[in-house]
Amino acid sequence: MGLISLGPAAALEARQQQGGTMPRYLLMVVAKQQPGMALYDAETDELHCRSEALGIAPHEGAFSPDGRMAYVPVYGSSAVGAPGTDEHEIHFIRTSDCQTVYTLDTGDYKRPHHVQVADDGTIYVTAELKESILIIDPESRQITGTIPTGSNTTHMIALTKDQSKIVTSNVGARTMSILDVPGRRIEKTIDTGVSNQRVALSPDERWFVTNLGQERRVAFYRLADGELDFSVEVDGSPFVAQFSADGRYLYVMGSMPGGRGRGGAGRGGAAAAPGSGRAAQAPPPAAPAAAGGGVGGNMRAWKIDVQARKVVASITENLGSGAGALVVNPVNGRVYISAMAHDLISIIDPDTWTVVKTIAAEDNPDGMAFTAVR
User: How confident is the model over 153-179, as pLDDT tens digits?
Assistant: First the structure.
């Protein structure tokens, strides 16, 4: 199948001419350059709307359970653990038209980054410099509590369905933490030996996984006791992973051996590559996502059979550079990965493990999320 490329402006204009109804499923793409966030129809991959300017370098976002609201923290100009602007805002954005309806100033809780939303709507957001996770009530839109993380580089989190535990990736500390949410305390700290990136829970919550790029392996830890169960080696530096809906496969994205997990800022030139712990290098020249054309880049993607504990498929070229996020579309099971340095989202068929479509995305696309709209 040849690649299909969608230009955001053309897609938005076409949708508006057709009447612009609210999609049933949405894809959020958070970009470090302005305006900062865009929503796409997850069934067609067409642009739905763009936000107004959100501030200096938002990275991640999440939806309310009904899909009617998006929450986007603003992080700041730096890499994790490096000096920067230390932003302190979280935007509440209406998904029907991408308009900000409220902005929460988190005050001294600076560098809000990763956000997770529970089934009851409770919002959990990392606040790195305060070594905390914020608990936010979606109705009052106020901070109602905090949970300590034990690290000022707690960059990403995973929340259990019952809100009893949060697992954190503490990048610079080379640790992970299991947090007792009701008790608002650290239950266990795990030494990963090297810097870890991202964290994902298996659908049955048996495992949480993180990516140990320096050792070229993906580590599976048991949630029950926080102990390492097994690891799977990959031919490169893994950066981010997500499970298939049935838990049979783990989809992983990273970079080639010796390559950086992040290939630098997009064409807008953000000051650093957040998540890498290092200042960004100048990105390679961005290439258009032309149908059937190669974009080059150092990113790779792997498909791991969890039961077999091995890589069963890989993509080693034309995914771009500047590893951002990996998410799974609930509509069709396809895997979406963002390449910040190429302003590109590649869409992978999970069965053939080939790129079947690309989206010319926002400037410096990083975090992504899907939701159904109810």
Answer: 999 999 999 999 999 999 999 999 999
Please give the model's pTM, rounded to 2 decimal places.
0.88
Using one digit for the tens of pLDDT, what is the confidence trace for 223-264?
A: 999 999 999 999 999 999 999 999 999 999 999 987 554 433
In whole angstroms, give the CA distance from residue 339 to residue 337. Answer: 7
Three-state SS string over 65-100 comes to CCCCEEEEEECCCCCCCCCCCCCCEEEEEECCCCEE
φ, ψ for residue 294, nearest 5 deg = -85, 140
Q: What are phi and psi of 130, to 5 degrees?
A: -100, 5
Residue pLDDT, tens place only, 195-227: 999 999 999 999 999 999 999 999 999 999 999
- CATH tag for 5-277+289-372 (out of 2.60.40.420, 1.25.40.20, 3.30.450.40, 2.130.10.10): 2.130.10.10
CA-CA-CA-CA torsion for 15, 333, 33, 358, nearest 10 degrees? Answer: -70
Nearest Cα residue to 153 out of 41, 39, 46, 274: 274
Contacts of 44 (CB under 8 A, 6+ apart): 23
- Say how far residue 80 (Cα) sits from the centre of its chain: 15
Query: If we measure between CA atoms, which residue out of 19, 122, 116 comes closest to residue 60?
Result: 116
DSSP state of 317: S
Q: What is the mean pLDDT of the chain?
A: 89
pLDDT band at 20 (very low <50, low <70, confident <90, very high): low
Main-chain dihedrals φ then ψ at residue 37, nearest 5 degrees: -155, 140
Three-state DSSP state, 13: helix
- 243/366 Cα distance (integer angstroms): 19
Residue 34 contacts residue 41 (beta carbons within 8 Å): no
Domain chopping of the chain, boundaries: 5-277+289-372
Both ends of the chain: CA-CA distance in Å?
33
